[in-house]
Design brief:
mainly alpha; Arc Repressor Mutant, subunit A; two-stranded antiparallel ribbon
Length: 127
């Protein structure tokens, strides 16, 4: 086996190890995320916003889907960002750091299911 093959093999083993560590870190972080979420997502509207923070839906669209003002969504995005729960890969399109949905939250179905089919999958549990 040549040096290049050994390097590829080593990189594959490292990638596998990183994958395991990432899964373990997610498992460890879940309770902390739920705790913070329960402090900042104190209304059904904010819980619905969290469900929609998948990085593909704009703040404006989230406001319309839920029936709140754009500013309400922006305030929640700010709260979630300050807690480290949301990242902004694309401005105005909030994305959760992890697909965590506290079990005590009531289920929510969007008004227009055909526009957001992934929500039903998310309600069934984490990815």
């Amino acid at each position: 086996m040549g040096a290049e093959d050994e390097m590829i093999s080593l990189l594959k083993r490292m990638a596998d190890d990183i994958k395991v560590m990432k899964s373990y870190a997610r498992f460890q972080a879940r309770d902390a995320i739920v705790s913070v979420l329960n402090k900042i997502a104190t209304t059904p509207e904010r819980q619905q916003m969290w469900r929609l923070f998948d990085g593909t839906i704009s703040n404006d669209a989230i406001a319309k889907l839920i029936g709140v003002t754009l500013r309400s969504v922006q305030y929640f995005v700010q709260d979630a960002e300050s807690e480290g729960l949301v990242i902004a890969e694309k401005r105005g399109y909030p994305k959760r750091i992890e697909d965590v949905f506290p079990t005590e939250w009531k289920a929510w179905k969007p008004k227009k299911v055909e526009e957001q089919p992934q929500l039903e999958k998310q309600e069934m549990g984490e990815k």
